[in-house]
Amino acid sequence: MAQRRIAYIDLMKCLCIMLIVMYHIDHDFFNYLAPNLNNALQAFRLPMYYFISGIFFKRYGGFLDFTRRKVNNILVPFVFFIVLAYAVRLLEWAARMAIGADTIDISPVRLVEPFYLRYWEVTTPLWFLLSLFWVNVIFYGLRHCIKPWWGVLLATVAISVAGYVLACRRVELPLMLDTSFVALPYFVLGWGLNRVGALSPSIWDRWGILVLAVVALPVYLFSTGLNLHFQILPAYWKFYLLTATAILALFWACKPLPHIPVLCHYGRYSLIILGTHPLFFLPVRSLLILRFGMSPGIPLALIVFSVTMLLEWPAIWLLKTYLPRMVAQQPFFDTDWKVLSR
After folding, report:
1. Backbone angles phi, psi at 227, to 5 degrees
2. Could you give the 3-state DSSP secondary structure of residue 7?
């Protein structure tokens, strides 16, 4: 039986993926609107995804079954989007050759760069999937080895402190492990919220919008630069306190919201948007700048964002219909780790 969708979770995911897409289109867009707005949004934009993953954490039938599910849902799409981006790069190379433009690097080494480089030119956002996979594995290990909930929390704090120290000393671990260490508390926050039954409807849900309005001002005023990808972190207390406050307030505010078809659709398939949006917005933005003479700013960003999200609609349909196992809509490996066929 298919798992029932939770509308407000899909809405939260939609909000986050749209903020991510807009940020990638123009890093300065939100600061055009308010001087510190981008920093305030960074407080929950990516941490929210770890939080949501933590909400739905299960140990399933043991470590092998758990790992298989995470490989199906995270690593298979990670590899697929790498290959897809490389295929698009090959098409770009062929087009450049046909018109006599400057060529681009299409060395096969590009296919393995995401596994050892922190920045991958073709579709950088895929780093998040590697980090999310390790956060899941690390937390599974904690739950397996530590029974009391308070022991899990203490271990989480210790791991996050270790990750924070590594970040401060500019020590980078392979496969985004250092980022996974500092992101673990967001995941645990989601797990803890589910553990205390916060996902169920409550008479207090009506106050969520008011709480978000109250929280928004201190989050805006006190947020500073935060970039999980490159481990640019504010003070430890601010890093977690402001983030947790923003996440919980947004979660509370979204709970009473109804199902909104288009937005919930984008939220449900936000994984596909994460993996494909650079393939759309980069050529669209280049076309508008080079052919139509538009300059960076709010109009350009809004046009590129609108076109990108419109293009995502058919892309989602194509991928979930014809390649569902590649985008986590169906399992790629069965219980015996054999590749499934249609």
Report:
1. -145, 100
2. helix
Percent above pLDDT 70 for the chain: 98
Across residues 255-284, what is the average pLDDT?
94
| Residues 6+ positions from 204 with CB-CB distance below 8 Å | none
Q: What is the end-to-end Cα distance of the chain in Å, rounded?
A: 19
Question: Could you give the CA distance from residue 93 to residue 142 in angstroms, rounded to a whole number?
Answer: 46
Instruction: Kindly give the residue spans of alpha helices, DSSP state H, lying in the chain.
Output: 7-25, 29-33, 37-42, 47-55, 63-70, 76-99, 127-145, 149-168, 177-195, 208-222, 236-254, 261-268, 270-290, 298-322
Integer Cα distance of 12 and 49 in angstroms: 9
Cα(24)–Cα(124) distance, integer angstroms: 10
Decide: 54 and 187 in contact? Cβ < 8 Å: yes
- DSSP assignment string, 53-83: HHHT---TTSHHHHHHHHIIIIIHHHHHHHH
What is the CB neighbour count within 10 angstroms for residue 172? 14
pLDDT of residue 1: 39
At residue 325, what is the residue type? R
Residues 103/93, Cβ–Cβ less than 8 Å? yes
Dihedral sign for Cα atoms in the order 149, 11, 285, 98: positive
The number of C-alpha atoms within 13 Å of 337 and in the hemisphere containing its C-beta is 7
User: What are the Cα distances from residue 33, in Å, to 30, 144, 333?
Assistant: 5, 46, 46
Cα(129)–Cα(134) distance, rounded to whole angstroms?
9
**Mean per-residue pLDDT for 14-19?**
95
Say which residues have a Cβ less than 8 Å from residue 139's Cβ, sequence separation at least 6.
54, 57, 184, 187, 188, 191
Is the sign of the CA dihedral 106, 110, 227, 225 positive or negative?
A: negative
Q: What is the pLDDT of residues 149-202, one digit of tens each?
A: 999 999 999 999 999 999 999 999 988 999 999 999 999 999 999 999 888 888
The reported pLDDT for the residue numbered 3 is 61
The SS3 assignment for 341 reads coil
